[in-house]
Amino acid sequence: MKFIHISDLHLGKRVNEFSMLEDQEFILKKIINIIDDQKPDGVIIAGDIYDKSVPSAEAVELFDDFLVRLANRNLKVFVISGNHDSAERIAFGGRLMDKSGIYMSPVYSGKVKPITLTDEYGEINIYMLPFVKPSNVKRFFTDSEINCYTDAVKVAVDDMNIDTSKRNILITHQFVTGASRTESEDISVGGTDNVDASVFSGFDYVALGHIHRSQKCSAEHIRYSGTPLKYSFSEANDKKSVTVVDMQNKGNITLDFIPLIPKRDMAEIKGSYEELTLKSFWENTSYNDDYMHITLTDEEDIPDVLLKLRVIYKNIMKLDYDNKRTRTANEINGAENINFKTPYQHFSEFYELQNGMPLSDEQSDFVSDIINQIWEDE
Questions:
Q1: pTM, whole model, 2 decimals?
Q2: Looking at the predicted structure, is the pLDDT value of residue 192 above 70?
């Protein structure tokens, strides 16, 4: 049985104030074309359908159109909610859509019942676990010790009582420890939302959402499909794709990755104003239409530079200078890699700067507990 695994559509997203709806509509059509070529039996969408819990009307209409196209192809479609989604909104109408082969994950209630499909090799059980926090799971397992995300997901998975003699697929939306992240994800403070991959050991394939870069996590069968589009310049060099999962007899899975070519790519270029405006530099590139991050190396600011550059690069999303002045400012402010530092790292560095010594183990544990509590409350 063959499945297409995608995730993190983030419909309705804006990147640097640019609406991505047109690009998202384009890439969803590309995915439909791939589905028509690959002829899968099912499509897995592993969370973050929308970019906001209350999505725009345009985003909802776009996803509705996508689902209708999938339903018209008589495919089984499995959709779970991610941390950006409202679990209640994703679940709405789910029992009615089941009859069309569109399975929307219900709000987590302590029980995850499998959807069972059958092929020439027997049964495949598909478990749909939406994004959960420890507090969501604690509510239904008051006697279990749940102190972190790994504990919570392990308890939820253990309660599924999967039959490991059969083929089992888990669809979930969590941050698996060690995954390579980008700037466009929302990752919890202090790394407290990490889930150890060992909790998924009983499954033949784990279709993950949440991290935006396509990758495996400790094993080939535990995979993020990544976003279908680039949502930050940290992904500029990434290759986006859909994951094709061909599940045959028990223990026999083949994976393939079909490239996704966007309507507009993301690109970063660096140089002086004079260099970047030379016709010989840009005329044979796609930079005219791409979303651009331009870094100018001129020591003096160029008057009205954004307006001037947009004559050539019409989709400039980000403009920086890299010169003596900006490098000195970054050294003073410690701004380098700030987006990749957790609140715990910020606090511990601030503490050491103020006190001339690092946090003790006891202080470190206390700070981590407080940060974790704040995250849970939010």
A1: 0.85
A2: no
Distances (CA, A) of 272 to 292, 299, 378: 15, 9, 45
| Separation CA 284–CA 32 (nearest Å) | 30
Domain extent at residue 7: 2-259
Residues 191 and 325 in one domain: no
Is there a single domain that holds both residue 8 and residue 140? yes
Mean pLDDT of 216-234: 94
Q: Which amino acid is at 2?
A: K
* pLDDT tens digits, one per residue of 231-284: 999 999 999 999 999 999 999 999 999 999 999 999 999 999 999 999 999 988
The total domain count for the chain is: 3
Q: What is the DSSP string of 87-111?
A: HHHHHTTHHHHGGGTEEEPPPP-S-
The domain boundary residue, chosen from 226, 259, 292: 259
Whether residue 274 sits in one domain with residue 182: no
pLDDT at residue 76 in the model: 96
Residues 2-13, mean pLDDT to the nearest whole number: 97
Alpha-carbon distance of 159 to 109, in angstroms, equals 12
DSSP 165-207: TSEEEEEEE-EETT----TTS---GGGTTEE-GGGGTT-SEEE
Percent of the chain with pLDDT over 90: 73
CATH number at residue 211: 3.60.21.10
Beta strand pairing status for 205-209 and 167-173?
Answer: parallel
Residue type, 127: Y
Token couple for 360? 């003790």
Assess contact for 214 and 6: CB atoms under 8 A: no
What is the pairing mode between strands 253-259 and 115-119?
A: unpaired
Q: List, in sequence order, the alpha helices (H) in the chain.
A: 21-38, 57-71, 87-91, 94-97, 134-138, 149-158, 273-276, 279-282, 305-309, 324-333, 343-355, 361-377
